[in-house]
Write a structure and sequence with these properties.
The complex is a heterodimer of chains A (306) and B (361).
Chain A: H1 3-39, H2 54-60, H3 66-98, H4 103-110, H5 112-115, H6 118-129, H7 136-141, H8 155-179, H9 183-191, H10 196-224, H11 228-233, H12 241-251, H13 255-294, H14 297-305
Chain B: H1 2-30, E1 38-43, H2 52-62, E2 65-70, H3 74-85, E3 91-92, H4 96-104, E4 108-109, H5 124-127, E5 133-134, E6 137-138, E7 141-153, E8 176-179, H6 182-193, H7 202-213, E9 216-220, H8 223-231, E10 237-241, H9 242-250, E11 255-258, E12 264-274, H10 280-290, H11 293-300, E13 309-310, H12 321-327, E14 337-339, H13 345-360
Parallel strand pairs in B: 1-2, 1-3, 8-9, 8-10, 12-14
Antiparallel strand pairs in B: 3-12, 4-12, 5-6, 7-10, 7-11, 7-12, 7-13
Helix pairs in contact in B: 1-2, 6-7, 6-13, 7-13, 9-12
Classes of the chains: A mainly alpha (306), B alpha/beta (361).
Amino acid sequence: MALAPRRLGRAFIPALLMAPTGLLLLVMIVGPLVAVAAYSLFDQAPPGAHFTWAQWETALSFQQVYLGLVLRSLGLAALVTVLTIAAAYPMAYALALVLRRNQMTWLALVMVPFLTSSLLLIYSFIVLFQPGGPVMAPLAALHLVARGATIVYTPYAMILVLLYEYVPYMVLTLYTSLEQVDRSLLDAARSLGAGRRTLFVRILLPLSAPGLAVGAVLVFPPVAGAFVEPEILGGPSAFFIGNAIQNQIVQVYDWPLAACLSLLLLFAVLACLGLLQAAVAAARALGARRSRTTGGATPTVAEAAS
Amino acid sequence: MSHRRLRALLAAGLASGALIAAQASVLAAHRPAKPLPVFVVANWEDYGSNAPWVVSYFEKTYHCIIKPVYYDSEEQALNILRTGGVGKVDVILPNLEYVQPAAQENLLQPIDISKLSNYKYLYPTLKNEPYDRWHGKVYGVPWMWGTTGLAYNTKAIKKPLNSWAALWNPAYKGKIGFYSDPTTAIMIAAMYLGENPYHPDLAKVKAALLRQKALDRLYWTSANDWQHAFQSGSIELGSLWSGLAGTDIGAGWPLAYVIPKEGAVGWVDNWAIVRNAPHPQLAYDWINYMISLQFQERYAYDLAQEPPAPSNSLVAAHLPARIKNIIGLHPQWLPHLILQRAMPASQLQQWTDLFQAVQSQ
């Protein structure tokens, strides 16, 4: 008899704790998503809207540019994700496992791009890198680049800014998972003769995989939908699905097609993240099986540590 | 520029304060038996109709209270009328691209131009424009106009340019900023090719735009982007709005703005009377005032609102060259303009698809 109310409390308290955010998500995310889905199936905004598949046919047609643009956006997102990992990993490693103090100061500095609006970042980047600006002028003076040369208005500039905007996410998630790595594991592996490469591949990488996956989930989707950075910085060839969606909304006023394209992008991104998750799971399963059959380093070290 | 704008804002603030006080005293003195009619004006914000000196003059002269309704796109303007604005809004300012569609949707009422004493002073190119009419009746009264022409940096480019061919000249590769807008881009390409700008051969236009894009440094969409790129020397020439060119020239930038010999793209904003407008007489009074020499001359000096070129042909003689350069008032341009007109939805779709295909490559 005493159990029943406690069990009720056990169900009730989490529900209570989750209610405020849950409600917010329901109103701010689920609601708009339903609206977008509804928009994608009607020929215009209500009143007087009729059901139609026309915009889905347009969005999915091989005669149109949209499928190609989705692929291009996914490619950009994959590239920027890989670059953020490459840029963030050494830093997160140093912060979590090498530096003995002042970690918080460094983390605070990493957070600076978070505190600035992305438009401000983009325009300050233009000022920094414009011809005759603080970066290009010294290079031109040293005759390393032509006078008036700049990377602004090229895909490189766009990628660099995206990298700058999203690298903090990756540093923070990697830092959190690397910080939990037991240093004695590393010492044990070293004492058993593991080289740097083995240390990284067999211990650090598997243990930081969750951080990598979370980082990718935070970086990949927004970059796949990026449209401001390409438009302002990327030059005439930087045109992605986000730009097409923006065009449909502000220039063509075809909101149903814009809704379709947004959902198309959403599904494509979800599929990519699903693949990523499957890949991480498969890699872990493979790693676990291999170390079981060969008696590899990871469990040995883990056992040594425990 | 910002200094001047600040001062203008301060002056406007003081003036409106004084006006409110004056109005209050006038109202108190009159104590009208009937409440004043509320005249509803739909327009972009800070585009002439809400300037304090305009509001106070019109309210005092025509004994009404102006209630502004703002929109920030033409589509939104039509939506205001579609969703309950008809019968409530008195006047609205559709672009020439939207006059016929709005008339066709039965959102506007025909205008009796004999009731507008200032109509006869409008530039002939503007008042004879067929797309201001629908089934032979006038639905839009030209008010302000502007162009998208060719701009270049006079320090970097010494030889005067006068043809759109400059934007296809490989000598300027990497120095061009092209205005990224489907209609403007296709019309410019058509003019360059010698095609009919309203009905060009779209295959040829697409090929030309792709060749043009290969020479561009930048496809610009906002004034800010153009100004950054021009000021930093990243671009030296490109297609540009006359209003923005005037602002930059007024600020002393080394910029020349020309109407190429093939012509330039033009736009016109028109006052229209909404169907079932509650105050038709006030609507005529308003439009007649908006196209008067009195309003348009003074508005030309209201530089904080970045006024375009006025439609009343009497204004030019009253303005100094400096102001005319800033607002882009060069009546000799008018015959060379290809005005952006309404087009069928299917054609607009074709054009936007074409330009999107160019952007995507």
